[in-house]
Structure formats: C-alpha cells, structure tokens
Design brief:
Layout lengths: L10 E3 L6 E3 L3 H5 L4 H11 L1 E4 L6 H11 L2 E2 L8 E3 L3 H4 L3 H5 L17 E8 L7 E5 H6 L3 H7 L3 E5 H8 L5 H8 L3 E5 L1 E3 L5 E3 L5 E4 L4 H15 L5 E4 L6 E5 L3 E5 L9 E7 L7
Parallel strand pairs: 2-3
Antiparallel strand pairs: 1-2, 3-14, 4-16, 5-16, 6-14, 6-16, 7-13, 7-15, 8-9, 8-12, 10-11
C-alpha cells in the first residue's frame, strides 16, 4: 500500500490586515500541490511574498499556470518585462508611468485578471518599493452607513484619466489618442461570487454616475484614502530573486518612485480572470 502525503502550505503573517510570507521550497511550489491552498490564502491576505525564491521565467510561467492559467501580456508574450529602460521596453515606458499611482489592472475589461506575479531581476539604486492595499479588508471595515451609501454606485473608468496623473498638460493629440481607448462603467463595490465585497477604485476612476463632480470626487478620493492607509497597506522592499503575487480582484497597487536610469527590472506574469466586475 502506498501513502500520498499532501504538501502543507507554510506561511507567516506580514501584517494583520494584509500580506503573508510563503516559506515553502521552490520544488514544493512548482509541484502544483499547493495551488488550491495558495489561491485560498491569496483571497484572504491580498498579497503573498516568496522571499528570494529565484524563479526563472519558465518556472514562473509554470507556477502561474498551476495556480489558474497564464494570460497573455499586451504583445502576446507570457512574461512582461517591467522597466523604464527604453532598450528593454521602449513601447511601454509611457504605460508604466501610470503604475506609480494606485490602480487595479483591467478596470476597463469585462473580466479583469485574477492576479499578477512579479519577480525581481535588477534592483533599483534607490526607491522602487511596490505598495499594495487590501480593498476586501478596507470595505469590510467601513461603517455600515457608508456601505449603504455606496452599495449601488457605478463609476466610469477611462484610460485617459489615469494618464493625466503623470502628464497633466497633454497635447490635444495625446488626449485624443488616450480617449480613443474608450470607457467602461463598473460598480464601485465589487460583489464577488464568494459573497465577499471589495472596493473597485484607482487612477482610472473618472466619476460616479449621477453625482455632481465635487461630490463624486470626494467619494472616490475619500475611499481611496481610506483603503490605502494603515492598516490595509503593505510596502514591499525588493530583494533580488523575490517574487510577489497579489489578488488583482481585491487589492490596489502602485510602484514607488525610483531612478528611471537605474535599470530596475521586474518580470511579470498574469493569471487569467474568472470573474466580471459587474
């Protein structure tokens, strides 16, 4: 008779409201036997850190596939190189400037990606931490009156709004190019299949439908301020070889400023989404 031993997920809490550090070996992670446990913990904690795990690109793609399937990046690749070095990523430098502000990936998509995984390949000379905020926990801690107030509000999301954060005085041609990407209307409160709820916010959020501009701005900025403060925020200071995975359906994230000429390099894989925002 043979016995099958189930690999146990070994982890420790980083902060009470967000983040867990995974302590299993690379071999255990790549076996696929921890995938269900990792996905469950990801929803609970928002961010999972794999200290100095040292994934190769092939290992990272395999790991992402085991967790739920790798989605293709913008040019059809499995691995996207995040760098402000134009020799590495000429086409995406403007796009990456938006990553310096709180956002959720894919707010204009019918089904946003489930999660992302970043691996550190080249460290910055200064700065360059990545910050995360747990919007499940932030929603759950809202006063009941505020929950009732925002329960059914809907928000216009647009790419052109996010670009104004880093280029506040665009040319008309730039603005028209951004606006050509369209808009999407999404609920402010993301009601998940699990029964839990999270806040859908970020730099693509332009306005709340049906409200005056000032009232709309106060709601969107006020909720973002609430969700990205302590105790819901975690800042990851990168070490070479670290990998970090976050729940894109229940968290905000942003990169902190760093020297654009330092060669900072992260490799990203993304997990296929399974749940529409509305």
């Amino acid at each position: 008779m043979t016995a099958t031993l189930m690999t146990r997920l070994v982890h420790e809490q980083i902060k009470p409201k967000i983040g867990s550090r995974i302590l299993n070996s690379k071999e255990e992670l790549l076996s696929g036997g921890l995938s269900a446990q990792l996905n469950e913990l990801l929803e609970q904690r928002g961010v999972l850190v794999f200290p100095e795990i040292g994934f190769t690109d092939e290992e990272q793609v395999s790991f992402t596939n085991a967790l739920g399937g790798t989605a293709k990046e913008m040019r059809g690749e499995d691995v996207f190189k995040i760098s402000l070095d134009k020799r590495v990523n000429r086409e995406a430098v403007e796009y990456l400037k938006g990553s310096l502000y709180w956002h959720i990936d894919g707010t204009m998509n019918a089904v946003p990606i489930r999660a992302s995984i970043l691996s550190s390949k080249v460290l910055p000379t200064w700065g360059g931490n990545t910050e995360f905020a747990n919007t499940y926990a932030a929603y759950e801690d809202l006063p009941e009156a505020k929950k009732r107030e925002i329960e059914d509000l809907r928000v216009v999301h647009a790419m052109w709004v996010s670009q104004l954060y880093h280029t506040p005085e665009p040319s008309l041609a730039q603005l028209e190019d951004w606006m050509a990407r369209g808009e999407a209307i999404q609920p402010l409160v993301w009601k998940h299949k699990s029964g839990r709820k999270s806040l859908a916010l970020g730099n693509t959020a332009e306005r709340v439908i049906g409200l005056e501009p000032m009232e709309s701005a106060k709601i969107l900025h006020g909720l973002r301020d609430w969700a990205t403060r302590e105790p819901y925020r975690y800042a990851h200071e990168w070490k070479l070889g670290d990998a970090v995975m976050w729940d894109n359906t229940g968290s905000l994230h942003r990169a902190m400023p760093y020297d654009p000429d330092c060669g900072r390099l992260l490799h990203r894989t993304i997990m296929r989404g399974t749940e529409a925002l509305n």
